[in-house]
Amino acid sequence: MSTEGKVTPLVEVRGIGVRFGGLQALDDVSFDVRPGEFVSVIGPNGAGKSTLFNVISGVQRPTSGSVLIDGRPIRRYRPDLVHARGVGRTFQVARPVGSLTVRDNVLLGAGGRRLHGVLSSLRPRGRDKTLQHRVDDLLELAGLTAVAHRPAAEISPGDLRRMEIARALGDEPRLVLLDEPAAGVGSDGLTPLAELLGRISDRGVAVLLVEHYVGLALSLSDRAVVLNRGRLLALGEPDEIRANQAVIDAYLGTKRSRGTVVVPPATGTEEER
Amino acid sequence: MTYAIVVAVTAILMASVVVSLNLTAGYAGQPNLAQSAFFGLGAYFAAVLSVQHGLSFWAVLPVSALVSGLAGAVLGAISLRLREDFFAITTVGLNFVVVALFKSIDFFGGATGIYGLPLPTLGGTSFTNDHFLVLSALLLGLVVLVSKVVRDSWYGGMLMAIREDELVASSLGAPVALFKASAFALSSLLAGVVGAVYAFFISSITPETFGFNQSVLLLSMLIIGGMGTIRGAIVGAVLLTLIPEMFRFASDYRSLVYGVFLVLVLRFQPQGLVGEDSWLARGAARLLRRSRSAPAAVTEVSA
Amino acid sequence: MSLLTIESLRAGYGRSTVLHDVSLRVEPGEFVVVLGSNGAGKSTLMQAVMGLRPVTGGRLLLRDLDLAAQPVHARVRHRIAYVPEGRRVFPALTVEENLISAWRPPGRGQAACLDAQYDLFERLRERRSQLAGTLSGGEQQMLALARALISEPELLVADEISLGLAPMVVEELFEVFARLNRAGTAILLAEQSAVLALEFATTAYVMETGQITLSGAAADLANDPRVADAYLRMS
Amino acid sequence: GGGSGGDTVKVGFFAPETGFGSADGRSALAGARLAVEQVNADGGIDGKLVELVTYDDASDPKQGAVIATKLVTQDRVVAAVSGSYSPQTLAGATIFQRNKVPLVSAYAVNPGIPETGDFIFQQDFNGEVQGRAGAVQFAQDGVRKPAIIAIDNDFGNALVDGFQAQAKKSGLDVVSVDKNEFGEKDFDAIIRRAVDAGADGIYLVQYVAEGTQFFRALRKGGTDLPVLSTEGIDSAGFLDSIGGLAEGAKITTNLNRDSTAPATKAFLDAFAKANDFPADMVAASSYDAVTMVLDAAKASGTGSADIQQGLRDLKDHEGATGTVATFTDGRQVVKPVQVLQFRGPKLVAVGEITDPSVITP
Amino acid sequence: METTVDGLVIGSLYALVALGPCLVYGLLRVLDIANAAALTLGGYLVLVLAERSGSPLLGVLVGMAAGAVLGWVVQRWIYLPILDRGPIVTLVTGIGLYIVATELFRLLFGPSQRSAHVDLPLPDLHLGSVRLEGIDLLVLLVTFGVIGITWYVLTRTRSGVLWQAVAQDRHVAGAVGVNSPRVIAAVFAVGYALSALAGALLSVKYDAVYPTLGDIPAYKMLAIIILGGLGSPLGTIVAALLIGLVESWVVASFGFALPRDAIAFVALILMLLIRPQGLIPSRVVKV
Ligand SMILES: Nc1ncnc2c1ncn2[C@@H]1O[C@H](COP(=O)(O)OP(=O)(O)OP(=O)(O)O)[C@@H](O)[C@H]1O
Ligand SMILES: Nc1ncnc2c1ncn2[C@@H]1O[C@H](COP(=O)(O)OP(=O)(O)OP(=O)(O)O)[C@@H](O)[C@H]1O
Ligand SMILES: [Mg+2]
Ligand SMILES: [Mg+2]
């Protein structure tokens, strides 16, 4: 897909800068994400990855630059408006609605785009058949069927992270932003997670992934963006990134690291791409 | 008998306001300590328009609803700007301000209040307490119905999400400002209608009737019963209306009993008497489960 | 005498027991790692040791002192320090105030202790007057660790220090741990990055559904097929 | 209306026993009880003992209607007395009127109370009467430019309305009207304002707590303007708490402690014996209201309608607060207004306003 | 000028009352209405003991001690167990406690206003045209003393940091060695003792105590805490003085144009519209 060329980007990040007091958390960052593409955002701690997600999802207004979705810029940085344009997200620290069940959490993620107004949103959330099917499907996809009826406050951290992903996918977004989905997921949980990410991508949803498990991230990605101290350090295909000396110095390190993990590619993905 | 009916009507009307309060305080989690101000606005507009301008009971109901609803929307808009605790105390202040307005604006009849509301008529006959009983029960039914619709809708789910985490709610597509303001408007509108009926029922009102103490009482009812549940709102309102009545004989100790009851319940059942995960709710759930699982076990064995 | 003795410990949440008869020892100067998958009970164990989770059975001794009878803050006075799971820095305190809150008067001066931590984590020196809540995820993790180390503990109880940290930083951290350990600090670590953990630790325990199922020298366990199967496949 | 079955005559009563009005509630209840005890000691009415059914309205206006309903429908009282403030009395009055049970308000001053209907009577002179009497008294004392400092509730409003209406007729020029909230403590600034406005006297409509603070501020500021106040501070607690601060100030009220009238003397003696606190106008008014009801029952019968008739026919009723010739057509009373002055530890009678054009409602 | 001095004295009393609840709020996010009960308690004890023993000072000290004990009991047995239930539950519980307290006072000391005519051996102060009564002088001195000490402790000693740490996460604060229960108990004890002190001064100044003495301070204190920026002691003091001054000025120039209690809340609402974070905001982080 990266070789195909002339496709309108789904999201264009143009010269984004974010300043917090004296700190330039992001500085003139530009790149784009094409429909269905899988892009990783990696970089050291404090590089500005989460800040970048906050800008793209409308939580944080940038001090300079702009974000375009389908060629049209975001004018009002409001998460619900960005959501309505087909962008879903998760948070670095999972944020469940703890008093609701896992199923209701996912259900909340599904339906916002069609039910924006107060009156239309008053329809019973438990009755819409297509909505129910989608939610069941997402719970199944994320492997949450067993815990679907437990309050979100009580489930394990691993389940919680997958619930966040399912919830972000609820409204059939064209792009999801996933902030460290593997953090806190045990080593035995990484393979299922990688498979889940692969399946999301297979559905044609573009993915922007922040992850310190670099091996996992790069093995799934079409391209990767590397940030360092708010600046774009490198942008390219996984192999270029792995070989990039600047990236190694700033982030990957020279010694053996978890960057060497190789995930078995999910079957069937090659042909489709 | 009539006394029982009067107490019943009072309890049902209180339950209706508390169920409406549950929309903002329970579902949307907004610390709303001003519900009696909206209740009072409804009552006051009803009283003024009927006593001084001769409008009928049925004509003032929609006016009360509208006025309270609009005022609620304004409060909702304020809530958008303020952090939780700032907002809580702003609502405390709102009570004092509204009472001051009732007292100092001539339209509202000043400190003396308004008395001598006529009995509503229906098809030519004047209301009796029995009529009030039916009317208030219908009103409670309406408020409960509206609450149920809200609770089971995407809108209601989002209100609960807003209660816990506004950022999450808006990232999932909820227009937080619109939802919050509309929840306040809806809750206040219902309270205003109840206020209008209440004014006609007790036939004379004074500013202090709708002051901070009343707001606290309404919120106490909700918390004692179980915040965030319709049954809790009703149980709390009924209990806190009945207990002071039942303790009339202990005149000198009545308020003390009320205070002690409040503290003891909140201390030992802070989730409310019939709220989620209260002793009663848990016990009921256990009973239900037992009565359901018993036959299930039999079929399993025989299968 | 063991520094920390955990014997047949039971602990949990309300009515549900999570830890069933967990026994474990930390000798002075030892580096013990507890491995286990999500929900195994590692964090519950760490919290029980600190007194943040009530213990419902078994014994918990620091040398011959009955820890279970000590309130949380008193355990810190007995030179145990704690890195909670998920950072939990004080968000509205600055980086420096976070550190000061954990500094204890006897011992070296405040300035010297602060400097020692800043030397360890240069990034924190840079951000010393930033409110901790606005730090990035990884920076907060560093702060949580520094906050534990500033009290110069004899026993460090740490829960998932690698969470959200860049790979290079994780390696550096393990090296820091090794150095501390060589200088005499005993470490009890719950961790999911099993490869690094087993490489640096002296002793390892594997926990499954609230029970210890395997234990031994870290080097031995690293070669144990059961461990490799469950915990080393991916990392 | 209620019947008078059984072997007791049930009379309802309510007062603010708790809440901010609890001091008045205590006096009111004591006065009412005294009246009933005396009648029962004399053998009751037609051989039947009188039972006083009392409720606490907790100083809460909302309770008026509920208590009234309870008294009427549950306790089936034949008549009732309000020992409470105007809001509660008004709320209850509607219910008594609808059920045709007579109610006598002991000391609530809102002129609207008897307007509720033909079963509702007001024992004390209403607020406007007392306000008018205040203006007359001030004029007599040589004050020309009074300032008004009044509490902002219907008690204050009624008195201020009466005072202002009469002020013009008596040649007074009111220089300022200030209304304060219940619980106000700081009168320094407001007194300074009145002085600056050129006031040569202060008409003070307050309750005990606010009244005490007013006099403290007045003395502290070194002002010695003449002060005329009202029955609002005619309370057991006031003389005790005020010390000598109110020395020389006058009040208008209905209870003359120096009265030589036998009814008043008898009441004061009996009250002093039965209670450990002195009688005040609230106690005396409640006592009078209850005796009126009982006298009416003695004269006309113990049914509600009988008592209503008896109250209408009431002639020259001698009470602790003076003699009531009769109830007017508007079911209010015509009684002289007493003027008392603080002298040392006592309230001393210094005058009486009897001008019919002033004291007739 | 006279008005300004009045305003300052009243504002000082507000500050003294509001300081305790402000610290408690900062620590536990509890809007503690029950604190006003300590005010009434202090008022009664100083008058009763002055009457019985002739020494107002003894009354003040006993009042403060009793206040401290009350504060300790309230936090230990009432607030701490329900803290996790959120601010609304604790707020209403506090209101319940306050109702219980006023009822007990009424039953114990009778419903009427009491006074004892406590004369302090303090000279009046004449500053030009302004006469400052002895008690007013005392109020100013005590308040500024207390404020000074609080300010020193919170900003110049490590206790300030520990207080903040407990405020943000009392469980983790324990795990870094802070004795959270003791910090909480101390803040309550001090806060209630200060309120008792304020109550004593108030009742001597106005020579009156009654069961509902705490009513107005209870709610005005909330407005002041908010105005000051919720949990920021300095802001609270500034706000208290400001409210005292504004009230006096408004009354002096417009009379009781607005109910005095509404003034505080109107000021509050106006200010929040301009500065939603309070006069001197305490530190908050949106995560
Ligand atoms: N509100 C804020 N005020 C001041 N500085 C901030 C604020 N938010 C973030 N920062 C700083 O901006 C930088 C970027 O933060 P960000 O959270 O985007 O990092 P990140 O790349 O996600 O790091 P990590 O991998 O550790 O999560 C950090 O150094 C952080 O301290
Ligand atoms: N607050 C809670 N209430 C009830 N059960 C809980 C709670 N927190 C954790 N548990 C349960 O306790 C068990 C052990 O959890 P614990 O957090 O100790 O596991 P862990 O080994 O630390 O897992 P992880 O690697 O995901 O951090 C889990 O089954 C979990 O569901
Ligand atoms: Mg991040
Ligand atoms: Mg854990």
How would you sum up this structure, described in words?
The complex is a heteropentamer of chains A (273), B (303), C (235), D (361) and E (287). By secondary structure, chain A is an alpha/beta fold. Chain A has two domains: 7-86 and 173-263, Rossmann fold; 97-172, no CATH class. Chain A has helices spanning 49-56, 79-84, 102-109, 129-141, 157-169, 187-202, 214-220, 238-243, 245-252, 269-272; strands spanning 11-20, 23-33, 38-42, 64-69, 72-73, 87-89, 175-179, 206-210, 223-228, 231-236. In chain A, strands 6-7-8-3-9-10 form a six-stranded mixed beta sheet, with helices on both faces. A four-stranded antiparallel beta sheet of chain A has the order 2-1-4-5, covered by helices on one side. The longest helix of chain A has 16 residues, at 187-202. Chain A starts with 10 loop residues before the first strand and ends with a helix. By secondary structure, chain C is α/β, with parallel strands linked by helices. In chain C, helix 3 (95-102) packs parallel to helix 6. The mean pLDDT of chain C is 85. In chain C, the strands form two sheets. Chain C has a six-stranded mixed beta sheet, with helices on both faces. Chain D is of the alpha/beta class. In chain D, the strands form three sheets. A seven-stranded mixed beta sheet of chain D has the order 7-6-8-9-10-13-14, with helices on both faces. In chain D, helix 2 runs parallel beside helix 3, helix 7 (208-220) runs parallel beside helix 8 and helix 10 crosses helix 11. Chain E has 287 residues and is mostly helical. Chain E has helices at 2-28, 35-53, 56-82, 87-109, 134-156, 158-168, 170-175, 180-206, 215-227, 233-254, 260-274; strands spanning 125-127, 130-132. In chain E, strand 1 (125-127) and strand 2 form a beta hairpin. Chain E is globular, with a radius of gyration of 19 Å. Chain E starts with a helix and ends in a 13-residue tail after the last helix. Chain B binds chain E through residues 25, 31, 33, 78, 81-86, 88-90, 92-94, 96-97, 99-100, 103-104, 212, 216, 219-220, 223, 227, 252-253, 255-256, 258-260, 262-263, 266-267, 270-271, and chain E through 25, 29, 31, 77-78, 81-82, 85, 87-89, 91-93, 95-100, 103-104, 107, 219, 222-223, 225-226, 230, 258-259, 261-262, 264-266, 268-269, 272-273, 276-278, 284. One magnesium ion binds at residues 49-50, 92 of chain A.
